[in-house]
Design a protein that fits this description.
The protein is of the alpha+beta class. About 30% of the residues lie in helices and about 25% in strands. The chain is globular and about 70 Å long.
């Protein structure tokens, strides 16, 4: 078995691509998905979030929901909206957001290599979300949401991708958020062999986003292997849908925090405690941290720049992350927030929303204090994964997002 392999993808016919592609299933809630799908019968939301086609009182995890998703997938296939390629292919998936551009390889990645940690993870999964994806994959007999993987860039791949993307793309669409999604199909045997061979020589791939999807794919593979007396390891269920981007193109944005109260502290008491670990400077402008160890704080209509003292930064790959430093030296000891997964007093704001969103949340009275962070770097993410450790919740916000519906892997 190889680390990755080509596959015969199911994808929209070019003239329907604009109508099909949709945000990832976990970016929109059910209400937002219902609104987004109005008047769009071909939207992939009918497949990724099929509860939108059922009554409001239906449990989104009910069996009827997954059955509806399977029906909707078959409907788009039968209508010719989605078509499967006749032979195994790789695909190149380009994302352009403003001045940022990245191109990844669409492939299926080995479940065995995921299980052996050759495909490395850095997050814990939530059982209910993992169970949901297991049932979705199993009911549809397809993996519809790609896992976002990354790798340490390779000069030969860079050059080959540059050459292949000079050809006209098979699909090019602009999503509602302005992000341009472009797809090229790679069919030439020599290119397939080259890419497979180079990737198979790599030590590791890293999960950037999609821990629940990859974990669910591994569980489905285990179940199907156990039920298949003729299992060979080459079956489609032994691989999971991925888009693999080089590290030097991958973009991580800040993932900021807002807290609804100051834990009973007056502002004077709060600043006194902050001074134990941070140098504090008031700022006339919103503070967008420019380096690790620097934080912005918005409180009572004013911005402050907090710089943690260097001697406070440990060498551990997890404890040295900015998200950990904020928790360990401020959120937990001062604001009393020790469990970021369960504490209802804290919320998280992706950097794509900008610092103005932090101001809005505080100025509205909904939250009392906000913190802007320097983005987690990809080398830091890889260091955590290489150490076999887990990052704190809400450590990374990858942007732009992959669309659902561009390419699907049938099992």
């Amino acid at each position: 078995m190889t680390l990755i392999r080509p596959f015969a993808g199911l994808r929209p016919r070019p003239e329907y691509a604009q109508a099909v592609i949709a945000p990832p299933y976990d970016v929109l809630n059910t209400t937002e998905a219902r609104q987004r799908a109005v008047g769009r019968p071909y939207s992939f939301l009918h497949i990724s979030k099929p509860e939108i086609d059922l009554s409001l009182d239906v449990d989104p995890y009910a069996e009827i929901v997954y059955a509806k998703g399977a029906d909707n997938l078959q409907r788009l296939i039968q209508q010719g909206i989605l078509q499967q390629d006749s032979q195994p292919c790789y695909y190149l998936y380009g994302l352009t957001m403003g001045n940022h551009h990245q191109i990844g390889l669409v492939a299926v990645a080995s479940v065995a290599d995921y299980n052996s940690q050759r495909i490395r993870k850095h997050e814990l999964t939530r059982p209910e979300k993992e169970d949901d994806r297991v049932r979705h994959i199993d009911s549809l007999n397809a993996q519809t949401g790609p896992v976002f993987l990354t790798y340490k860039h390779h000069a030969t791949i860079d050059e080959l991708v540059k050459t292949l993307t000079t050809a006209p793309p098979a699909i090019k669409v602009v999503a509602e958020d302005g992000v341009v999604h472009t797809l090229w199909v790679i069919q030439a045997p020599e290119h397939l062999e080259t890419l497979t061979s180079i990737f198979n020589q790599m030590d590791y791939l890293y999960i950037a986003d999609g821990h629940h999807r990859s974990a669910a794919a591994a569980r489905v593979a285990a179940i199907r292997q156990a039920n298949n007396l003729d299992h060979t390891g080459t079956e489609a269920y032994n691989y999971f849908l991925s888009v693999i981007f080089p590290d030097h193109q991958t973009q991580i944005l800040d993932y900021n925090r807002v807290v609804e109260d100051c834990n009973g502290l007056t502002h004077t008491a709060l600043f006194k405690q902050l001074q134990s670990h941070f140098n504090i400077h008031s700022s006339l402008q919103p503070v967008k941290p420019q380096q690790s160890g620097e934080f912005g704080m918005y409180l009572s209509g004013r911005w402050y720049q907090l710089n943690i003292r260097l001697e406070q930064i440990p060498s551990d790959p997890v404890a040295s992350l900015d998200v950990s430093l904020l928790t360990d030296y401020l959120l937990a000891p001062i604001l009393g927030i020790t469990d970021l997964r369960r504490d209802q007093r804290i919320d998280f704001v992706g950097g794509i929303r900008g610092l103005s969103e932090l101001e809005t949340r505080v100025n509205s009275g909904q939250m009392a204090i906000a913190f802007s962070l320097y983005p987690t770097t990809l080398p830091a993410l890889m260091a955590v994964a290489d150490a076999g450790k887990i990052m704190p919740p809400k450590s990374t916000w990858f942007e732009p997002k992959l669309a659902d519906g561009m390419v699907t892997h049938l099992l």
